[in-house]
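Hi everyone, sorry if this is the wrong subforum. Our group has a chain we'd like a structural model of before ordering constructs, and none of us has done structure prediction before. Sequence below.
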Amino acid sequence: MNPGAEKGYALDFTSVIRHVATELERSPGRSSEALAASYQHPVRGDLSRVRQHHGHSSDGDAIQFLIERAVAALKKQVESDGNGGYRLTRDFDDLRYERKKIHWLTDSDDEDERRALRAMYNDLTENRTFYVSVEGARGATKERKFRLHPLARAIPQVSEKEFLDLAADIKLNGVELPIVVYNGQVLDGRHRLAIAAALGMPLQVTEVDGDEARAKARVLSLNVNRRHLTSAQRASIVRQLFLPEAKEKAKERQQLAGGDKTGQSAQRSSARSAPEPVKATEDAVKESGSLATVRSVESLAPLDDAPNTQRRVNAGELKTVSDARTEALKELGRDPEEKAPVAQPRSAYDRLGCARGDVKAACKAIEHDHKGQVTDDQIISRINEIRAHLDRAEKLITARNNG
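Answer:
Right subforum, don't worry. Here is the predicted structure as tokens:
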């Protein structure tokens, strides 16, 4: 099999284009049938998909289809000789290839189609409704409308060029990857959705069940590993997807930790718990699978109120955390040299205060039988682990005081 076939027929399509161009350079006047008959490169993996998406009954028909598409892709360099054959109008060496692809869609004369695609790209917001045909399990299609889930917006869009390249591939191959839907909104696949809506092509849907935490994990698994995200984009994703919830949990812990205090006692407890925002950032980074560092997430705090800078980060224009912070401060009218706050290590007392809040919350969950997918024995085992750590901490303090 041609190595390109393993990665998709858009890559292997280049070999077909090269074959057409080379044959016409060598023997002008050949017909598309003659070009197809002389094509010897095995593309079995690709041909099965060509046959599936375009309804060809044989490999020969599929190859003929590829040859005709290659001629169409080269139409600025190929002309008819008037006798059913073709010839090159310029040297083969002058043909332009990018990443082993001919972007025939971009070079086409269908201005309306390109205009529709660009409009879709520029209007990829959670407010827009997309109308598409969804393929069912038995091949039947059903018209459905979708909006984007807010979580999807945390992942930066691809560039316009990448979007048009994807559109070219989808027009040739169809939408091969299903879009992922959560609570009726598109969680992953917004670019495929927009292209399918613009081109009127059907697609498939995968539904995601579970809570929002699972939805966030799905967003990361589907995007982070397959996209080359900048350090600023990674820190921004943590701030948008994970930090808000972490802050809410931190606030609940503070309330539980100081819930039995009043007056000055409560104020002193609150003051001692001041490092809690740092704990929230630590928790957010942990929940994200260490997508970014605590310092980088803290450094991008000004980005929350700087929408223009946020857009530049999403577009990949501002790649580093330092550049993104500087530009966000400028947008806010603050000193661009303003240093990011340095997170101070939390004291043992503060950490125990956080643990106290967690233990109180756990007791409340047990009281209301919200123990999740675990047994009572597992909960007791965890309690004993915590008790052992507390006993050790007490022994360390006693030994230090006696020493």
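For your construct planning: Residues 25 and 91 are 8 Å apart (CA to CA). The mean pLDDT is 77.
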